[in-house]
Amino acid sequence: MPTTLLAFLGACTLIAASPGPSTVLIIKQSLHSRRSGFLTVLGNETGVFIWGVVAAFGLTALLTASEVAYDVMRVVGAVVLVGFGIQALRQARRAKGADDGVRADAPKSGRHSYRGGLLLNLANPKAAVFAMSFLPQFVPEGAPHLPAMVGLAALWAVYEVGYYGLYVWFVGRLKSVLSRAGVRRRLEQVSGGVLLLLGVRMALEG
Question: What would the pLDDT profile of 44-66 be if each residue is shown by its tens digit?
Fold first, then answer.
């Protein structure tokens, strides 16, 4: 069991370290505040746990078996990503307007940050399919399948809260540099562009 857990946590580290939409959104939100970044992490990991539980009950098999269901989720996910990308680009433009004396919008609420992280994860069909293929590999032989899968999903989510929390902390440590108007605006533009490209790619994937 300890060996299995170490292997599982090692795999979780590799997964979290792979750049993706969640990483981009977490860093983007952390530019606003640590609270916003951490709540985005919590929302994202709630989605991870939900997909893990869904996989434990075997429901994600329905998604992979139905091409229509998968395509619907793929399109929804693409729309969500494009929406986040446009939002980031608009924030960059508003930041420029604030520099020029135009009033900027008020910061978003913590609920908005949490909901954004959750929505981004749940709208990604790849996350569902990945959970179904990933978690069963680490269920110990002879262990009850359902409780073991749910337990691994919970461990996965908690571990990633700690991992991505380091991103939030690191961005906070660089706040004196990142809070400069020009730097922050540029980062908003980059994150917005990346989210837009990821959304377009997801929409075009078969």
Answer: 999 999 999 998 888 777 766 77
**The pair of three-digit structure tokens given for residue 93, joined into one six-digit string:** 């433009």
End-to-end Cα spacing for the chain: 39
**Range with lowest mean pLDDT among 78-82, 84-88, 179-183, 193-197:** 179-183
pTM higher than the cut 0.70 = yes
- Maximum distance among all alpha carbons in the chain? 66
**CB under 8 A, 24+ apart: contacts of 162-168:** 163/12, 163/13, 163/16, 164/16, 164/22, 164/23, 164/26, 164/41, 164/44, 164/45, 165/38, 165/41, 167/23, 167/26, 167/27, 167/30, 167/37, 167/41, 168/26, 168/30, 168/34, 168/37, 168/38, 168/41
Q: Are 88 and 188 in contact (CB under 8 A)?
A: yes
